[in-house]
Amino acid sequence: MEKSFKKKLQREIAQRFIVLSFFISIIFLIIFIGFSLYIQNYQLTSESKAIESEFSSIKNKNYQILYHMNQTIIPEYLDGDINEREIYSHFYQEGAGDIQQRILVITDSLGNVVFSTEPSWNRPFFAKNYLKTMVETNKITNQIERIVKDDNKNHYLILSKALKKEKETIGYSMIFVRENNFLPNEVSYGTQYIIADKFDNIFSRSSNQFVEGVMEKVSSKLVKNRFFIIDSNLYSVKKTKLTNNITLYSYIMFLPLKVLIIFSIISVVILIIIFVYQSIKIAKKVAKHNTKTIDILVEETGKISDGSKMTIDIFTGDEFEYLAQSINNMLNELTELHKKTISLEKQNINFERKMLEAQFQPHFLYNTLETIRITSQYDPQLTQKIIFSLNRVLKYSINYKNKDNILSEDVEIIKDFLEINVIRFEKFTYEFIIGEGLESMKVPKLFLLPVIENSLKYGMRYRNDLEIKIKIFRSDNEVIFEVEDNGPGFEDATIENIYNQQDKEQSKHGLINSFWRLKIMFTLLDLRIENKKEGSIVQFVILEE
Question: CA angle at residue 200 from 195 to 202, to 5 degrees?
């Protein structure tokens, strides 16, 4: 028995540790790859923002130049008020002297060039009708961004604004930003980028890695995929919309795929070997230690079973010694505990019944006695009436011979209770309505009293002309016990709290007390609380099968 259990325990511990080691290795690998991807993505995102910021800065700066010149100098030039030298000088000042990186072009409304800071523009260095086509297809748009390449394979970003005179377009001012004017300073750590339009025409790039063909278009892999593999290298691409027509493609090589696979396999194998070795070693030690103590425990319990011993003697200083002491204490107290259990169960039943049926708040008795003291001085007959009602209420409430009572008897006692309060509060009124055939219904003693007391307690604080209506009636397959008042109603939080306590038999709230007393007798029971315009309605609804 010892050897088989020991081997079984050792094998089970080892198996669990081996499985755990495998999962830990996989999780470690996933965390490593995930962390690496996160770092790469963070780098790609931050540097993409830097490139986007640089592009936005250049675009805004050049549009600002166009805006200023459109307001003053260019309309004057088109009207013949100033010559080309003056507009060239103004453009030089607006560009802070940096005119080598940009070209100013002014066209008429049809796209014909009327001025250029580039002398060679006397003959266009790209398709002759390009500007005309660009203007023609964007007549409604006041602002145009395009990318174009000249015959010498120089790339330009065209930023254009419409020239307006009396709401009519009289021409266009354009700035051609050269590719070498766009050099982001904050790009590092291997991040590359390409800025291109929706037709894959390139304005600027950090390398020619994903530029294809003599037209120098963006590679389709860079445009379409978030991740892709080329030459066993994994690339990550981030696309950022710079304008409606222009997109930034920033990309970075994650890791050589072969290196990643080899590293992953080696890491997992090393971790599994380490975990398996340690698992087997730990399993042997745990099994050897625990089976020895278990054997002693089995032997000692066998002696108790055959009557040769009354206690277990184990002194190992661990949980097994504590277990042995607990068993000894259990054996010593078992007989006495059995006797006490029967006695406590009886006491508990009586205590719960008395607690559930102890309906009256102490203030009711104190206030009634005070009322008797006062009325005895000027109206003995009224005093006698109060004493008679109080006597009936108290006798009925402390009579424990019958656990359940007839509804009609319960109602009479509640009426006595209410009559006492009618004497105490002059403007207080109540009404009882009981449906036909319900008078003989068996109910828990005075289970409606906590609801009525609750209405009295909070209602009299709110108004002295409090009115309580108690209705007991049948509706379809339901018997409804309803208490309605014109008091302040319930707060939403109080209603929610009461509903949350419905499943708790032990509760300090009187409504839950009444609910559980009724639920013991009627299993299908529902509690409904509703605020009305003035006051509230509490219903105990018994669903008849």
Answer: 40
Distance between CA atoms of 258 and 530, rounded to whole angstroms?
70
- Residue 393 CA to residue 368 CA, distance in Å, equals 12
Residue 534 to residue 487: CA distance in whole angstroms: 7
The three-state DSSP-derived secondary structure of 471-525 is: EEEEECCEEEEEEEECCCCCCHHHHHHHHHCCCCCCCCCHHHHHHHHHHHHCCCE
Six token digits for residue 211:
């530029």
pLDDT, tens only, 429-440: 999 999 998 999
Q: Is 440 strand, coil or helix?
A: coil
Cα dihedral 507, 510, 512, 513 sign: positive
CA 318, CA 313: separation in Å to the nearest integer?
13
Which residue do the tokens 């004017």 mark? 181
Helices 257-305, 319-357: inter-axial angle, 10-degree rounding: 80
- pLDDT, average across residues 463-479: 93
What is the distance between the alpha carbons of residues 17 and 26, in angstroms, rounded to a whole number? 14
Query: Are 5 and 294 in contact, with CB atoms under 8 Å apart?
Result: yes
Phi, psi values for residue 183, rounded to 5° = -135, 85
Give the CA diameter of the chain: 127
Contact predicate 196/179, CB 8 Å: no
* CA separation for the pair 19, 260 (Å, rounded): 24
Among 139-143, 254-258, 406-410, 440-444, which is the least confidently predicted range? Answer: 254-258
Whole-Å CA distances, 302 to 31, 296, 398: 52, 10, 55
What is the C-alpha to C-alpha distance for residues 188 and 208, in angstroms, rounded to an integer?
17
- The pLDDT tens digits for 281-305 are 776 666 666 566 666 766 767 776 6
The C-alpha atoms of residue 471 and residue 475 are separated, in whole angstroms, by 12
DSSP 283-299: HHHHHHHHHHHHHHHHH
Q: Would you say 247 and 196 are in contact if contact means Cβ atoms under 8 Å apart?
A: yes
